[in-house]
Amino acid sequence: MLDKEAVIKRVRALLEHEPRINLHRDPIDIDVVADAVVLEGEVEDIAAKKLALELAASVDGPRGVVDRLHVKPAERLGDGAIRDALCASLLNLPELRNCTIRTRVKGDVETLRQGPADGAGEIEVAVEDGVVTLEGSVISLSHKRIAGVLAWWTPGCRDVVNSLAVAPPEEDNDDEVGDALRLVLEMDPLVDPDGIVARVENYVVTLEGHVRSEAQRRRAEFDAWALFAVDKVVNRLEVRPY
């Protein structure tokens, strides 16, 4: 039998010592239910969310972590606006031009584009309370990761549940993550990727090199955090305006 209070105290101590997490500004409710740690609240960014989950998972005893953390959006938008913006991005992305795109609203499914029979899979988008859920299947892990990043880029998004399957299945590894990150950095209009060198080891991304502004430095780190399965990002990018 777990000592519930001891587990909660240990998790809280770990969160309080993580610089990217501010429990005073963004309180996180910590509970233990059925021997699993439950984290609930709204945090500053995706880095705080992933770090909080990783720290909770590091505590001995609990059998897992239940993720009920959401991210504060830069602007609050309705689910319909979020869904429409994301679907437009998916429809316009060349890498997904042969992919069927559907939306689900209160159980009703609408097909926005029907891809060919031998296309790049199908993506179904649903949004509830700012949380984007992606379901269906795509042809590669890179496609899965790119779709997830597009969701995180969408204004108003508070979280992304990327349940896309990959068919045929692929074995995930650091090289796959690195390939997807390079694609994402090249796609991102807010980042100049020419001076960025990215290394991936055990799903930890290290960014090195230089960018032209602090905004680009932060955005490149955000793109890395937004990738499916990335556990940590080390940002060593230097800002060189000229």
Characterise this structure.
The protein has 242 residues and is an alpha/beta fold. It has three domains: 4-71, 2-Layer Sandwich (Histidine-containing Protein, Chain: A); 79-166, no CATH class; 181-239, Histidine-containing Protein, Chain: A, CATH 3.30.1340. It is built from six helices and 13 strands. Strands 4, 5, 6, 7, 8 and 9 form a six-stranded mixed beta sheet that branches. Strands 10, 11, 12 and 13 form a four-stranded mixed beta sheet that branches. A three-stranded mixed beta sheet has the order 1-2-3, covered by helices on one side. β6 (121-128) and β7 (131-138) form a beta hairpin. The mean pLDDT is 95.
> Treating each run of at least 4 consecutive H or I residues as one helix, how many helices?
6
Order of helices and strands: HEEHEHEEEEHEEHEEHEE
Radius of gyration: 19 Å
Please mark out the parts with pLDDT under 50 across 5 or more consecutive residues, or reply none.
Answer: none
Whole-number average pLDDT?
95
Q: Helical content, roughly?
A: 25-40%
- Biggest sheet, open or closed, and with what strands and sense? 6 strands, mixed
Keywords:
alpha/beta, 4-stranded mixed beta sheet, globular, 242 residues, Histidine-containing Protein, Chain: A, 13 strands, 32% helix, 3 domains
In short:
The chain is an alpha/beta fold and 242 residues long. It has helices at 4-16, 46-57, 79-92, 141-153, 174-187, 214-225; strands at 28-33, 36-43, 65-71, 100-105, 108-113, 121-128, 131-138, 159-162, 165-166, 196-201, 204-211, 232-235, 238-239.
